Structures are given as C-alpha cells and as structure tokens.
Amino acid sequence: MKVVTSPEEIQILAQQYRSQGLLIGLVPTMGWFHEGHLSLMRRARQSVDRVIVSLFINPMQFGPGEDLDNYPYDLKRDCRLAEEVGVDIIFAPDKGSMYPEGFATTVSVSGLTSSLCGASRPGHFDGVTTVVAKLFNLTLPHLAVFGEKDFQQLAVIRRMVADLDFPIDIIGHPIVREKNGLAMSSRNTYLQKDEIPAALSLSLSITAVKNAIKNNSGQTITPADLKDIACQIVTEHPECEIDYIEIVDKTTLQVCTHLSEQSLLVMAVKINKRIRLIDNSLLMES
C-alpha cells in the first residue's frame, strides 16, 4: 500500500490508472478507522481495480466550537487497518496543500442542506461538498462509497454529482453497529463509560419506533406519534440534548406527513454538550 500526501501526485497516479483501463474507487474519510470505515473499503474493493482512501480532517466542515482540534488522528494505525482490507493508496494531504493561500472557491448545494444537520451546523455541507469535489477531481474515481449513517451527507453528495455531471457512481453502504446497537462513529471514542446508556438511547428509540409500527393494531399512527416515542426515550437521559429528531422522506429530506416506504427516522443528539451523535433508519423496510 502506498501513502500519498501530494495532490499533484495523487492526480498523476489516478490519470495513470485510467490510462491503463483500471477502475478506481474512492472512500473519503477523516480517519480514525473503525469497522464502519473498513466496510466501505471492502465494498469498494469488490467493484474496482484500485481503491483510494482519502484521510483528511477537513477544517471547512467544522464550525466554531466544534471538535476540529480534538478530532482523533493516528495515521500509522489507520494505514495498518486499511492495508489489511486491501486498500491500494492512502491519500493523506495536509491543510496547506488542499487549501493553499488564496483559496477562494466553495461548492454549495441548496435545498437539501437547509434542514437537519444543515440547520444546526451552518456552512457544514459547503465544507463537505467543496472537499469532496476536490477529492473527485484529484482521484478521478469511477465510483465512491459513502456510509448511510451520514444520510443527509449522502443525499447532498448525490445531488452535487447529478447537478455537476460528475461521471461517478455514488454507492451508499449500510450503517455498521456495535454489538450493543450503537452506530459506529469516530466520535464514539469521546464517550465515557457512564455515557454509554445515553448514547444507546438513539438506537433504542429506533427500535421502539419500528416496534410501534409493527404492533399498531389497525389504528392510524402518524409520524408525529412516532417522533414523540423517539423523543421520550432519548429525553429519559438527562445527559441527552436533542438537536433534531424527525421523520423525513429519504430522497427529498422533507418532513413526512404520513408513513411510506420512503420514511426515514433521522436524529442528532448531544451527550453532555460534548459529543454529537447521529443515527437513522428506514421505518418500513421490506
């Protein structure tokens, strides 16, 4: 496995791969790999000849007071894990090479970014789309794999790719969970042992909402009813502060007025004002 830090070098390598007729897959990450990340890499490995994993803690997607300075980072560890699952290249640039002096361009997607994480983290998705557009241009992938845990991000990336005519297949990969149900996240490393029950309230609320739908005895149950069930479970823990809990259409991200196979429960919760966790699930999966 090769580690590349230069944007110019990764683009030359990608051009060489394409000239040889090789298919390239990209997995964009901010590092501190866990099984969720590794599953994305394995998924890419199934479909392409060369897997590139970017590892860049993108300052453009962090707002004031967020955890940019404390975000976990261990390049040596991550390289070992990536090599074990067959990654060909780790692209690990520094901030100065990605955003050199004079950098003045932002890629912005409207509409899909106005609610949920976009409402509570102003500018976040502009940072995401800008860096992902750069990564696409540098690594020239035929496909890119993103985790469905960041469902709004996935929807925004798909919109950008469609609108800007990137010739890239965007693949969403299912959430990977701990044995206790907690959605895997690099930020889980911030959790103290006594905060685990509060963190688990996210996945437990998903289970409760699905059970309410399954056990509904012919009576009308509304998205508002289900939202109340989820909120009640989360707020049983005083450590939890709800950023949002909503039931939305999985494509438009608009709040649902009735349940359908498109209905997605999405949530963001802060634990002790320190750790922001997100989770989601389709509610009527076949």
Automatic annotation (TrEMBL):
Compartmental location: Cytoplasm
Active site residues of this protein: 37
GO cellular component, one term: cytosol
Keyword terms of this UniProt record: ATP-binding, Cytoplasm, Ligase, Nucleotide-binding, Pantothenate biosynthesis
Involved pathway(s): Cofactor biosynthesis; (R)-pantothenate biosynthesis; (R)-pantothenate from (R)-pantoate and beta-alanine: step 1/1
Residues bound to (R)-pantoate: 61, 153
SUPFAM superfamilies: Nucleotidylyl transferase
Binding positions for beta-alanine per the UniProt entry: 61
Any one biological process term the GO annotation gives: pantothenate biosynthetic process
Catalytic activity: (R)-pantoate + beta-alanine + ATP = (R)-pantothenate + AMP + diphosphate + H(+)
Gene3D superfamilies per UniProt: HUPs (3.40.50.620), Pantoate-beta-alanine ligase, C-terminal domain (3.30.1300.10)
E.C. code: 6.3.2.1
InterPro entries, per database record: Cyt_trans-like (IPR004821), Pantoate_ligase (IPR003721), Pantoate_ligase_C (IPR042176), Rossmann-like_a/b/a_fold (IPR014729)
Family that this chain belongs to: Belongs to the pantothenate synthetase family.
Miscellaneous comment in the UniProt entry for this protein: The reaction proceeds by a bi uni uni bi ping pong mechanism.
SUBUNIT field: Homodimer.
Protein name: Pantothenate synthetase
Organism: Desulfocapsa sulfexigens (strain DSM 10523 / SB164P1)
Lineage, top ranks: Bacteria, Pseudomonadati, Thermodesulfobacteriota, Desulfobulbia, Desulfobulbales
